[in-house]
Design brief:
single chain; about 500 residues; alpha/beta; Aldehyde Dehydrogenase, Chain A, domain 1; Aldehyde Dehydrogenase, Chain A, domain 2; 2 domains; 6-stranded mixed beta sheet; about 25% strand; binds nicotinamide-adenine-dinucleotide
C-alpha cells in the first residue's frame, strides 16, 4: 500500500503517530493509498522546522526569493499534467477541470513572482523639517494553511506562494482525503531551490489542526473549508492571539431575469451547477428565476443535462466525475429524498446512477429540483453535490431579498440584458463576488477572493493584494538624521512650521 508521509525540511517523514487515513479513488471506490495522521508531536516537528528556517529565509534578498518563485512557476507549468492526474485520481474531477485548477494556482504563483514590487512601502519626504516617514512590510514568521478536499492543488496555492515569497515559512495541513497534489507541489518547490524548512506539510485531521491553532510559534492561520469548521478555526485561532482568515461554505444564487439571453443562462446554470460534480464553493446551487424565466429556462437546462457525460475523470470526453467519498455521496442523495418529502418537484434524479464497470465508485448523476421554497432544507443547506434548485419568484425585489437574507455570501450572478438592472444588482447584493452574465465570478490572482457573511471570517480576503497584507506586518519608520536645526530639549509636540 502506497503510504503518503509528512514533508518536513524537504524530506519525507513518517512521524511518530501510528494513526492513518485512507485515500480513495472515487471513480472505483478502491483505496489507493494511506496517509499518515499527525499527532501534536508531528505538528511540532513541522513548526520547529519552519521556525528554524525563518531567520535565514526572512534575510534572503527579495530578488532571490522572486527567482525561486520563477523556478517554481516553471516546474509547476511543466508538471501540470502530472498534478492534474493526481487530482483526478484522488478527487475524481475530470482531467480538463483538474488542469484548469492547476492553471488557477499557477496564476497565484505568477503573482507572487512580483514580490519585489508587491512589498514596496510608502515614503513621504519632509513630513517635518529634516524628517521623513516610510513604511516597511515584514513577514510574520511561521504561518499555517489548512485546506479543503475540493481544490487540493489550487487552494494551498492561494496561500503558500504569497506567504513564502513575502519571507514567511509555512506549515500546510492539506485535506486528508486527497493529499498527493500538495506533496508533488512541495517536491517541485524544493527542486526550484526552496531551502529546507520553508514549506512543510503535516497530514491529518482535527488533532493536527488543533495543535496548529494553539502552537505559540504559529503566527497566522489561513483556513478554507466548511462554515462550522471555519467558525471554530477563526474563534480558536484568534482567541490564541493569531491572525486568522477563514473562508467558508456557500450557497450561491444565480438570478435569471425575464429579459436574459436564456441560451446563455442555461449553459451557465448547467456548467456552474454540475462542474466538478457541484463540489465547488463557487458552484451555483440555486437558480432564482424571475417572472416567466423558469418556464423557458428549465427545458433548456434539462436538454443540456441529458447530454452530460458523467464518467471517470480520466476517460475521454468525461464532463462530470464522482463525488469525493461514499459517505458524502449518501449525504447528497439524502438531500434529494428530503427535497421530495418537502414538496419540491424533482425534474431529474441522479440517485442510483453509476457508469458501467464503476458500480463501486461514489457516483451521483446530475439532479434538478423545481418549485423549491425558502423553508426547505435543500434551499437552506450547502449540499456540495450535483443538485440544482430552481426557486420561482415574481419580482427582482424578492430575488435580491432572498439572497440578502441568506446566511452565506460567497458568489452570486445575475443574467439580464438590461445594464441598469445589472448595475442595481451589483450595488444592492450582499455578496462578496458578483457575476454579470457570468456564473462563477472568481477573481484572478491580482485581485483578492473572499465572500461575505458566513462565507468568510476575518478581515482579509485571500491571495492578491489582501494576501500580501495578510502575510505581512506593516512597520512605520519616522527618521531624522542629526542636523543643525534640531538641537536643544523640547517637550512640546512638533508644530511643523
Ligand atoms: P472541511 O471543513 O470538512 O475540511 C477543511 C479542513 O479542515 C480539512 O483540512 C480538514 O481536515 C479540517 N477539518 C475537518 N473537520 C475539522 C474539525 N472538526 N476541526 C478541525 N479541523 C477540521 O471542508 P471540506 O469538506 O474539505 O471542503 C468543502 C467545504 O469547503 C465546503 O463547505 C466548501 O464550500 C468549502 N470551501 C470554501 C471555499 C471558499 O473559498 N470559501 C473554497 C473551497 C471550499
Amino acid at each position: 500500500m502506497n503510504l503518503i508521509s509528512h514533508w518536513i525540511d524537504n524530506e519525507l517523514v513518517d512521524g511518530v503517530a501510528d494513526r492513518r487515513g485512507k485515500v480513495y479513488n472515487p471513480a472505483t471506490g478502491l483505496v489507493s493509498a494511506e496517509v499518515v495522521f499527525a499527532d501534536a508531536a508531528d505538528v511540532d516537528a513541522g513548526v520547529a522546522a519552519a521556525a528554524a528556517a525563518f531567520p535565514e529565509w526572512r534575510a534572503a534578498p527579495v530578488t532571490l526569493r522572486a527567482r525561486i518563485m520563477f523556478e517554481f512557476r516553471d516546474l509547476v507549468h511543466k508538471h501540470v499534467d502530472d498534478l492534474a492526474k493526481l487530482l483526478t485520481a484522488e478527487h475524481g474531477k475530470t482531467l480538463e477541470d483538474a488542469r484548469g485548477e492547476v492553471a488557477r494556482g499557477l496564476e497565484v504563483i505568477e503573482f507572487a513572482t512580483g514580490i519585489p514590487h508587491l512589498l514596496k512601502g510608502e515614503f513621504s519626504e519632509q513630513v517635518s523639517r529634516g524628517v521623513d516617514t516610510y513604511t516597511i512590510r515584514q513577514p510574520l514568521g511561521v504561518v499555517a494553511g489548512i485546506t479543503p478536499f475540493n481544490f487540493p492543488a489550487m487552494v494551498p496555492m492561494w496561500m503558500y506562494p504569497i506567504a513564502i515569497a513575502a519571507g514567511n515559512t509555512f506549515v500546510l495541513k492539506p485535506s486528508e482525503k486527497d493529499p498527493s497534489a500538495s506533496m508533488l507541489s512541495a517536491e517541485l518547490f524544493a527542486k526550484a531551490g526552496l531551502p529546507p524548512g520553508v514549506l512543510n506539510i503535516v497530514h491529518g485531521d482535527k488533532v493536527a489542526v488543533d495543535r496548529l491553532l494553539e502552537h505559540p510559534d504559529v503566527k497566522a492561520i489561513s483556513f478554507v473549508g466548511s462554515t462550522p469548521v471555519a467558525q471554530y478555526v477563526y474563534s480558536t485561532g484568534t482567541a490564541n492571539g493569531k491572525r486568522v482568515q477563514a473562508l467558508a461554505g456557500a450557497k450561491n444564487h444565480m438570478v435569471v431575469l425575464p429579459d436574459a439571453d436564456m441560451d446563455l443562462a442555461a449553459d451557465a446554470a448547467v456548467s456552474a451547477a454540475y462542474g466538478s460534480a457541484g463540489e465547488r464553493c463557487m458552484a451555483i446551487s440555486v437558480v432564482v428565476a424571475v417572472g416567466d424565466a423558469a418556464d423557458r429556462l428549465i427545458p433548456m437546462v434539462t436538454e443540456r443535462m441529458e447530454k452530460l457525460a458523467v464518467a471517470p475523470g480520466d476517460s475521454p470526453g468525461a464532463e462530470m466525475g464522482p463525488l469525493i467519498t461514499g459517505d458524502h455521496r449518501d449525504r447528497v442523495a439524502s438531500y434529494v429524498s428530503s427535497g421530495l418529502e418537502e414538496g419540491a418537484t424533482l425534474v431529474a434524479d441522479g440517485r442510483g446512477f453509476s457508469p458501467a464497470g464503476f458500480e463501486d465508485g461514489f457516483w451521483m448523476g446530475a439532479t434538478l429540483f423545481d418549485n423549491v421554497t425558502r423553508d426547505m432544507k435543500i434551499y437552506q443547506d450547502e449540499i456540495f453535490g450535483p443538485v440544482l434548485s430552481v426557486v420561482r419568484t415574481d419580482s427582482y425585489e424578492d430575488a435580491i431579498r432572498m439572497i440578502n437574507d441568506s446566511r452565506w455570501g460567497n458568489g452570486t450572478a445575475v443574467f439580464t440584458n438590461d445594464g441598469g438592472a445589472a448595475r442595481r444588482f451589483q450595488n444592492e447584493v450582499e455578496v462578496g463576488m458578483v457575476g454579470i452574465n457570468l456564473p462563477i465570478p472568481v477573481p484572478l490572482a491580482f485581485y483578492s477572493f473572499g465572500g461575505w457573511k458566513e462565507s468568510s471570517f476575518g478581515d482579509h480576503d485571500i491571495y492578491g493584494p489582501d494576501g500580501i497584507s495578510f502575510y505581512t506586518r506593516q512597520k512605520v519608520v519616522i527618521s531624522r538624521w542629526p542636523d543643525p536645526i534640531h538641537r536643544g530639549v523640547d517637550l512640546g509636540f512638533p508644530t511643523n512650521r
